[in-house]
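Please go through this chain and its backbone structure tokens and walk me through the local backbone shapes. Keep your notes short.
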Amino acid sequence: MNENKINIIGAGLSGLVAAKLLEEYGFNPVIWEASDRVGGRMKTDLVNGYQLDRGFQVLLDQYPALKKYLDYDSLDLQKLLPGAEILMNGKQFAFGDPVRSFSNFWASAFSPVASLGDLFKLYQLRNSLSDAKLSDHFSEDGENSLAYLRRLGFSEKVIQYFFKPFFSGIFLENELATSASMMRFVYALFSKGNAVIPKAGIEAAPKQIAAQLKRTTIHFNTKIDQLQGKTMQIRGVDEITSDFFIVACDPSQLLSQLPDDSVLWNSLDTFYYEVDRNVFGKAIIGLDSDDHLVNHLFYPQSVDTASKGEKEVISVNVVNVEGKALDSIEEHLEGYLRNKLNLKESNLIKHYHLKKALPRFERMQYDISEKESQLSEHIYLVGDHQVNPSQNAAILSAEAAVSAIVEKQLQLT
């Protein structure tokens, strides 16, 4: 058993993976979590029997790092259908990957979303991205997603009605300003596999990793105020010394040497409404680029869920609410559900405002080296905000930090 003290701040995906790996090397880590349970930004709540993720979230089943740490069978992963239902000009059109199925091709070919030339370019893009290593998608990082799509020759129509709303719901910004590296990476994963949701909700994934911890102590509802050297301050009173700290949360709030804006974030507002029916009739994402607020639409109960409410429930993602009053947003969404989706009933049951929903980068990379994970002699930084905004990156950062700590221990012995 290793006697070195290691404290982890944050019980999200990266913090839990770090603890699991440390246990394998004989450490007994301690996790400090500000909220009441594990999961970080991957949380699921039960409201009136409805299973609500905090923001519409999926797992991509082809993330290499997720495959290493999650038992997919136990999570009972529910697949979303590839493609999307596009809402435009008062009508609804199916638009899917032309390679996935023959029906997808014909539905897409006869929709006004894209031309045959666009479909051929989608086919070429899919093949080129699928053949490359995932890390290769980050080899060039000087172009944003919008410029990349235009350079490939996609029409403004398919950019407006498919790419913008689809990737806005992933990147949480509606101008496709995110690096083309991230677009290539995500699109390659969608091409190879599926977007999935655990039957018990997104929180089931981090909970599964937490359940594997045997020698880790977790303190909940405990906010850490500051880290300095080998000392951690809790609630401005208690101090704890440690040989190593792994910061698995936004480090700018803990470390005085980092500026407040050392990590930039995109926000998200997700509204859950109890409604009378599923207008899509299947487990698929709805996209709307005509509306100035609505982005992704999804019916969580279109897949099997561990808990099910009496009626249908729809999640509405909004990524452009800055400067808008909540009352006016809710009024707009209620009118949208009534007039655009022709829903007779819509009752707001939950609104999540996620100020720090997804880290924002000017430049990003596939993974992080052991050296890059180390901020100082005793402090290591992990999380997707260190690498790229993905669950895969969160795990890879934890692996790098633990490897660095273990290597340092070997050098000292």
Remarks:
- The mean pLDDT is 92.
- Residues 6-42+203-259+364-412 form a domain with the FAD/NAD(P)-binding domain fold (CATH 3.50.50.60).
- The first strand starts at residue 6 and ends at 9.
- The longest helix spans residues 391-412.
